[in-house]
Amino acid sequence: MRLRLEKRLDDRWWIKPLVALVSLMLALIAGALVMECASIPYYKAYILMLEGAFGSVYGLSETVVKAIPLMMLSLGIGIAFRMLLWNIGAEGQYCMGAVFSCAVALAFPDFPMAVMIPLMIIAGFLGGALWGAIAGALKAFFDTNEIITTLMMNYVAIYFLEFLVYGPWKDPTGYKFPMTAMLSPSSHFQQFGNTRIHLGIVIALVLMTLFHIILTRTRWGYEIRVAGENREAARYAGINITRNIILVMIISGGIAGLAGTCELAGIQHRLQHGFDLGYGYTAIIIAWLARLNPISTAIVSFFFAGLIVSGDHLQMSLGVGSGIAEMIQGIILFFVLAGELFLNYRLTFRKDRR
Amino acid sequence: MNHDDFLIVAIIAAAIRAGTPILLATLGEIIAERAGVQNVGLEGMMLAGALSGFATYRALLLHPWFCSASEGNTLWCLLGGVTAAMFCGGLLAFTHAFLAITTRANQVVSGLAITIFGAGVTSFIGKVFVGIPATGFPNAPVPILSAIPVIGPGLFNHNVLVYISYLLVPLIWFYLFRTRAGLHLRSIGENPRAADVMGINVAYSRYCAVVKGGMLCGLAGAYLSLAYTPGWTDQMSGGRGWIAIAIVIFSGWNPLRAAFGAYLFGGISGIQMRIQAAGALVPTNLLLMLPYIFTIVVLIISTRGIMRRIVSPPAALGLPYNREER
Amino acid sequence: MTSHSEEAMELNEACLLEMKGIIKRFPGIVANDDVSFSLKEGEIHALLGENGAGKSTLMSILAGLYLPDEGQILLDGAPVFFQSPRDALKKGIGMIYQHFMLVEAHTVAENIILGEEKSCILNKSSIEEEIRCLSDDYQLSVKADAKIWQLSVGEQQRVEILKALYRKARILIMDEPTAVLTPMEIRELFRTLRLLTEAGNAIVFISHKLDEVMEIAHRVTVMKSGRVAGTVATSETSAEHLAHMMVGRDITLSRKTGEEPGEQAAISVQSLCVKGEKGIPALSEVSFEIRKGEILGLAGVAGNGQKELAAAMNGLVKIQSGTISLLGQDVTDRNSRELYEKGIAFIPEDRLGTGLVPNLDVEDNMILRGYWRAPFSKGPFLQKNAIADFSSRLIEEYSIKVPSRSSPVKSLSGGNLQKILFSRELASEPMVLVAVHPTRGLDIGAVEFVRQKLLSEKKRGAAVFLISEDLEELLDLSDRVAVIFKGRFMGIRDARTATIDEIGLLMSGVCSERGEPCV
Description:
heterotrimer; A: two-stranded antiparallel ribbon; 13 helices; B: ABC transporter involved in vitamin B12 uptake, BtuC
């Protein structure tokens, strides 16, 4: 008798959720183990994390605040991944979007809000789109590995931003800190109530709906789905793959840029050193976990935002290092990846003479 | 020696010092990719190596067995750190191997998971080690060789880890191209079915290759925290793991060209620092972009036209192998 | 059945190898059904049969790649048991696969010694010397330090043979060795094989080519549908006899009625040339036309250019020279979408790989060809209602069994997949239908469905191009049958008067009844 792996032919509906659930539980257990090793009371830690993220109005609203950029980034990455384009450069596209928006805000501080905000949004999209398009073009025409190009462009974008805040855009009244001046009030996104939740949430939700509609109801969405699944069938159907690669990268980058704009206009109100928070990488995990589906993306983004907020809370309460959130993210991803095995294959017992 | 000589020596030395961690990581990844498995988790493994190396070094230093801070004892502690670093790098690599080979997960995402996990866990655990002063491996000039004008002090006045990396380049080249095991490894990466038919155990060999790659990456991390800038700072790998991946492509999966590429990058970093130090008018941050832009250009050239045959990747790279599938 | 093989074995020489009662099952099919095979020393024994007859499976078992479910293998009279190809190699059995197991980026030497290296450290010059001696001994000239991708197909094959000889193989199994060789290389190969047998080796020669089998083999075993149809000495048989054993009769299904095709040519192909891989042309000067209301069948063993012809007719492969015209209009360099719009429908051989997208649902697949235009699209939006109506209508019309409209198609049976393809392609009432191996892997009910559909299309006035390996089927359904061999049309016969033997000979490259080979 022997355990063998066979390709799975059926597709029972309960397999995906079951695997996800088991993966999550195993991940939490593994996280607990790591914490034990570091002499951190994991039980207390998990409770604190839940409290921090969802236990208070403040916590909940902060979770939403963080979910906004995460959601937008993940949506953008999700579209790219659908076409098998590994856009690791969301981080850089995010920065470039913020840079372009900031440029608008700095150049025309006296514009009224009604003009400024849309202008910033357009600029942000353009910035990210440009960044994405470069990698897309390189891939479409030269078949250059987009993992490396987008990644390298992350660093270029971050250093560019640093250059601006240390140099030409440095606030003359800012005591030599590497940051721009506070952007004029007309560039601030509306905030809701007492919270820091801003206009970005509307944009994010609109995007989510838009993407859902595009993927399920438009011709282009159909083309993306086909091309991402099966290049041969796509050719058979007459789909232009080159054009789609570039288009998808433009959209993917543009959305990431928009995320940057939202952070800039909604929370930070100035460009500064350390503007990049690594959301671009977290968003990759979110996109993969959400199986590239826009609605699930929103839900998983919310969950991961909670993870980050709770990580901060934990840091303050127990004095543990930041990074616990990332650590748990990584562990979750491990288990989900391993679990994917069972989506494609199943274990069977076979009589074997070996 | 005149002023120019000093400059050249300084640049060479800087290139070697800065290029070594990249070289080590690149060599490790070349081994893994030659076997057909793509591991983009180099950043995570490097960080794991750096932290575990430093932490072990500190732990050993404070341990009663090694308490007397004599030079000899410190060296043992450092070596202990290096061993721990290689172990941790190998451990993370083993996880990736399991995901990529046994569960046949998507290798890109798996590698990213390793990177993110590595970044997170080292950030988390490393908090206590931030800011602790340390002296790493001392410089150990090689007798006779370091007296050669210009290249002597440039090449032969470094710490022992650099010398190890010097040796690893020809060693790994020899292993890959002149030994039986190396031939098996390369065959697995090119045509696993052909290797399988000739009786080679594809899965086992791939596991070995990936773990070896992880160990070298861990060594690269140890170099960072125990030799280059002794101590631990959060995210101290600074993207070197990603540059290593680009250099793997640039080198055409060849250890000798990898050395060239890694030191070239080290050189660019070094030159950039010189320009900065010389108070040039070009802003620091723009200079810092150079290596990354350079990588992109190099990548475009590497994957085009005539270069293709010479520097093409192993044919089966990134594809899981299953004997049953016909 | 087995009486033939028993007769053949009555000769007084001891058998080097015997395979007795081999049974091998795969999901859904019995590849080898109680097969017995024997091999004598110094013999070239051919294994003949159509694709899917079970020849490769049988030899893969012998080479240690598969384990038989039942049966025994005896080597020099003693039973042997192979767990892996390595075991078979150790016992002196080497297989030269149809798709070479070579590492293209490595040198000849590196490929030959792989897995059989004598020491840890590879001494390039001594290895190359060893190989030079080996190749001289057997007169198989190769340059030991050349890279595989630089070699011609014939030279690569020599490397494969040397691989087996380096491991002291006594039995060589060659799987369709002449499939991609030029006539001159084939002569070289035969010379080598004769040399090898003189040296005491025995060779199993798997092939579907009758003239070569007659030329080189001492004995022939014919396989059909997983069973042995017979074993004879080549001196006691003829090509026609073998052709008849290879192809047989089956149960009756729909056949064509007497309807005459129309006068007008729906599609006309002139001097079509398509480049193949490795420099051998896939199609050379192919010319034919199909009239409205006619079914033109294309017979030929797989790999002789059918795939490329179908692809060229549907805009999926680059045409080097020649023209394709639809009702007189030149459509030569159009892409697949344009050709579909102009009225050429395509049922590809690779259902789940090319014709359908496995992870998408039935509805998504139904609109694969027409999604960009009305009524399925209005502007950038898909018209869900129109799509749903269309799918429901087709599902009902064709009785396609789907658990639900939104389940991914990869979970459907072959018959249902084919129904989806047919329903989709025929929905636009095309002028020309190209169907490649449409009944492959289908159960009887689905086969009948396909036959009915093809006949009803003919009745409607479409021109049908039916590419199939099933001669029975071609003769039952087609008005005329063309035969393709090595990228050329060997001839077009009237299906009413053609015989299976005649077509079988053309398929094997034999031009006339006297067994003379064609150019």
